[in-house]
Write a structure and sequence with these properties.
The complex is a heterodimer of chains A (92) and B (750).
Chain A: H1 3-17, H2 43-57, H3 74-91
Chain B: E1 11-19, H1 26-34, E2 40-42, E3 55-57, H2 64-67, H3 78-94, E4 104-108, H4 114-126, H5 143-153, E5 159-163, H6 168-181, E6 187-194, H7 198-206, E7 230-238, H8 239-245, E8 251-260, H9 273-285, E9 295-297, H10 304-318, E10 326-328, H11 331-334, H12 341-355, E11 357-358, E12 374-375, E13 381-382, E14 387-393, E15 398-405, H13 414-427, E16 431-440, E17 443-446, H14 447-450, H15 469-472, H16 475-478, H17 483-498, E18 510-514, H18 520-533, H19 550-559, E19 565-568, H20 574-587, E20 593-600, H21 604-615, E21 627-635, H22 636-641, E22 648-657, H23 660-666, E23 674-678, H24 683-690, E24 699-701, H25 703-706, H26 712-725, E25 731-738, E26 741-748
Parallel strand pairs in B: 4-5, 4-6, 9-10, 9-14, 10-12, 18-19, 18-20, 23-24, 23-25
Antiparallel strand pairs in B: 1-7, 1-8, 2-3, 5-19, 6-7, 8-15, 11-13, 14-15, 16-17, 16-21, 16-22, 20-21, 22-26, 25-26
The chains are: A mainly alpha (92), B alpha/beta (750).
């Protein structure tokens, strides 16, 4: 999957899991901060998103502070997923 | 916020009973706490191999078979058994024979029989054909524990089941005090119980709220709570009853306060302003100066957010005295026992006063700079305790503070008793209705148009209610709200739209609502997912919505309501019970205004299993409906001062168990254009009505237009308000009847 398609897929997942009714993937900026201002997401959303990403992509997110850079933006999250998936392919 | 002055009615604690993970018995639990013992160990109740953490504080040495009557061993929950054992201890200590001295019951919890029923719920969610009523499901409703207490240690002439998440046990005690203060009760058995289950264990783990190693309240390394289970009850008694029975008071419950943060469904308000305000209010109400306070039994969960918030709240409330007042939390030793916590900790607070001894904070070794308090570390210590506070905070931000003091010597004067009785009757505030709304088969309607439910017309189709969320909600603020929370909030919002005056109703408004079985379908879905995918893939966002007080908690956050926010449920009279509870809290001065009602959704599990099994709904003929209703109840003077028009007044409200003859005797006689409104006009309702002076009055039911559900009594009250507002009637009796329980209201034009 190319990075644009992956980013769109992650945006759809964010909208569905966090119940961002009325929002479309096009309205979410690839590089804008996910948490804090903007979408108004908080720590409870981060937990839900982490669970959903782990389930959907069969990856394991680090816990604690290490997850912060991964959750910085849609782009960062997509990079992490792509990297984890390609590692998994190599290891397989 | 209301209150503030010293009430004329004093409330004494004359008995304690505790089942905790450390011991069976209140004093044995206190002994173990003081010795610094901890109850956490590897969980044995269920498999935790797919969870992030594996330890909890389990109650040992007590089984359902030890406590339940032989024929009920398969239908009682562990929660029921723990509650009954704790209740027996409290009544025995108080030497209270409830069959001789009328006693009432206030019970708080969150999960009831979830542990026993979660496997069945998961199966029912997975396979829609598995709908046969299984006797084990009798233990599922939170109200089941109250019903078991009724049969095992009752009779209790009135009982009320509350949920406010982790402050439920404390709120049951607060309600008992309110009943005594307003003269509704002389004696109340009040407390809470909660057993461990997969749902709460997995849910708190999904929230990352459970400490991976051990629970360390106020420690700089604290990383979360530890879960526990247990039960506790207090016998609360009026001054007159203490004297009459010659009971020995252990402490006086001299002040209390409840309010809501209206902030976030799981996170506490950072600065602790609400919690601090409530501590100050409880002290004022008990006429206790901060310099007379010696101990605070903290909520102290061990989560980074709670303990920092609570420390800030203590600094705000106690001022410089915070450097003197000792603080400790029981949760590092017995865990967070959820609905039982407020009651167990209240019992330990009473024992701290009785013994002049402070229990420690287990797990605390290196106090956090953010939690700069006078801690009790390691083991308990002796200290003079003249008065002490117990704090309880819940999901959705319902905070409750109880203040206990050394019992003062009671003056023995019969005259004093009589004047106190006169005074308390005079003190009961009058309640008026300033708004009402329904959401159901006829749409979203204000009070006048809710009258439609009393008029002839087509039966409902039973189709689920449809609504466009964006037409009713600011979606960015409503995204956490599930469907029941939204349906309830729409009804509450519409009812509040009617109660305008020169001044708005104010943020001190409270909210009460629930459904008879909580959020049963969402719970079944959550548990099924745990079974299928493992605990680590449980949904953190779904979990807070499973507690029965979630819809009303969401409504309070969305609408900014900061008074008491509670759920109450009582099988077939759940709707009526919510309104009765609101009347009781307003007349006792606990709130000046409360929006109260019900929310019931279509649910196959409710319709085919829980309803027929628990509430006798199998005999309901006609379509099953869904919907919400909300009534704005206000203290008469509060409505007048803000220039709001009262649609009617509540002339009478009462509720009880069994014997309807007592209810009939209490009812005022009908006058003028009178009307009886009921949820359903069935044989038992007509039979009960025949015992009253209202027997010849015309009767209208709402079920034929609204469809049947357990919250229909609130729709009946809204329709009755409509009939009074419309001039259709001048005097209305609303009668709610279900097996072994009844609620009555008489509404009158002003």
């Amino acid at each position: 999957m190319d990075s644009v398609a992956l980013r769109t897929q992650i945006k759809e997942l964010i909208i569905r899991e966090l119940n961002l009714e009325g929002k479309t993937p096009a309205e979410l900026d690839d590089d804008a901060p996910l948490f804090g201002a903007g979408l108004g997401l908080d720590s409870l959303d981060a937990l839900q998103l982490a669970m959903a990403i782990e389930e959907r992509y069969e990856v394991t997110l680090p816990e604690g502070d290490e997850v912060r850079p991964i959750f910085a933006s849609v782009a960062a999250l997509a990079d992490f997923v792509a990297r984890s998936k390609s590692l998994a392919t190599v290891n397989a | 916020m209301p209150g503030g002055s010293v009430g004329p009615m004093r409330v004494f604690v004359t008995g304690l009973g505790v089942v905790s993970p450390l011991a069976l018995g209140a004093r044995a639990t206190m002994d173990a706490l003081v010795q610094g013992r901890t109850a956490f160990r590897q969980l044995t109740l269920f498999d935790t191999s797919d969870q992030r953490t594996h330890r909890a504080a389990e109650v040992v040495g007590l089984t359902v078979a030890d406590v339940a009557p032989p024929t009920h061993r398969d239908t009682w929950s562990r929660t029921d058994a723990m509650a009954v054992v704790a209740a027996r201890e409290a009544l025995a200590e108080s030497r209270l024979d409830v069959s001789r001295h009328e006693t009432h019951l206030a019970f708080g919890g969150t999960t009831g029989g979830m542990f026993e029923t979660e496997q069945l719920l998961a199966e029912m969610h997975r396979d829609a054909s598995r709908r046969e009523p299984h006797a084990l499901m009798l233990s599922h409703p939170l109200s089941a524990t109250s019903d078991r207490l009724q049969t095992a240690v009752g009779p209790f002439a009135r009982s009320r089941t509350l949920c406010s998440a982790c402050s439920g046990g404390a709120n049951a005690i607060l309600l008992g005090a309110a009943w005594i203060r307003s003269g509704r009760s002389e004696r109340v058995l009040a407390g809470g119980a909660d057993g461990l289950c997969r749902l709460t264990f997995t849910g708190f783990n999904a929230l990352g709220a459970v400490a991976p190693d051990r629970c360390r309240p106020f420690d700089r390394r604290r990383a979360g709570l530890g879960l526990g289970e247990g039960a506790a009850f207090l016998v609360l008694e009026s001054e007159a009853s203490v004297r009459m029975r010659g009971a020995v008071p252990l402490a006086e419950l001299s002040g209390w306060a409840v309010g809501s943060e209206a902030h976030h469904i799981t996170n506490p308000e950072e600065g602790g302003a609400t919690a601090a305000g409530l501590m100050v209010r409880a002290l004022q109400r008990g006429a206790v100066a901060v310099h007379e306070l010696d101990y605070v039994n903290a909520h102290g969960t061990g989560t980074p957010l709670n303990d920092a918030m609570e420390s800030r709240a203590l600094h705000r409330a106690l001022g410089p005295e915070v450097a003197r007042v000792a603080v400790s939390s029981c949760k590092g030793q017995i865990g967070h026992t959820l609905g039982a916590a407020g009651a167990i900790e209240a019992a330990m607070t009473v024992l701290a006063i009785e013994r002049d001894e402070l229990p420690p904070t287990g797990g605390l070794e290196e106090p956090d700079a953010e939690c700069d308090l006078v801690h009790v570390i390691g083991k308990g210590r002796r200290a003079e305790v003249r008065s002490a506070i117990s704090n309880s905070f819940g999901f959705g931000g319902t905070d409750t503070v109880l203040l206990f003091t050394r019992p003062q010597v009671l003056a023995a004067s019969r005259d004093g008793e009589r004047s106190a009785a006169r005074e308390r009757l005079a003190r009961r505030s009058r309640v008026v209705v300033t708004g009402a709304a329904t959401l159901g088969s006829l749409g979203l309607l204000g009070s006048r148009r809710s009258l439609g439910y009393l008029e002839p017309g087509p039966a409902p189709t039973g189709e689920p209610l449809r609504f466009e969320a964006k037409e009713h909600f600011d979606l960015s603020r409503a995204r956490r709200m599930d469907r029941p929370a939204r349906l309830l909030t729409m009804a509450m919002q519409t009812a509040l739209g009617e109660c305008t005056g020169k001044r708005p109703i104010g943020p001190e408004l409270g909210a009460i609502a629930s459904s008879a079985y909580g959020n049963v379908d969402a719970s079944a879905e959550f548990i099924q997912r745990i079974y299928e995918k493992g605990g680590r893939l449980a949904s953190p966002l779904a979990f807070p919505n499973l507690v029965p007080s979630s819809p009303v908690g969401h409504a309070a956050i969305y609408l900014g309501m900061r008074g008491p926010v509670l759920a109450t449920l009582d099988l077939g009279v759940t709707g009526e019970a919510a309104i009765a509870l609101a009347c009781e809290l307003i007349e006792a001065g606990e709130a000046s205004a409360i929006v109260a009602g019900s929310i019931e959704e279509q649910s196959a599990i409710t319709e085919h299993v829980l309803g027929p099994l628990c509430a006798g709904s199998g005999s309901w003929t006609g379509v099953r409906g869904e919907g919400a209703a909300a009534i704005v109840l206000e203290e008469e003077g509060h409505a007048e001062r803000r220039g709001a028009r009262a649609l009617c007044k509540i002339e009478h409200s009462a509720s009880g168990r069994d014997g309807f003859a007592r209810a009939a005797a209490l009812l005022p006689a009908p006058r003028g254009a009178a009307l009886v409104v009921v949820a359903r006009r069935d044989e038992s309702t007509l039979g009960a009505l025949a015992e009253t002076s209202w027997r010849d009055v015309s009767i209208a039911e709402v079920a034929s237009r609204a469809g049947h559900h357990e919250g229909l009594g609130a729709v009946a009250v809204a329709a009755a308000v409509g009939a009074l507002g419309d001039g259709r009637a001048e005097h209305v009796l609303v009668l709610g009847l279900a097996p072994d329980r009844w609620v009555t209201f008489v509404l009158a034009r002003r």
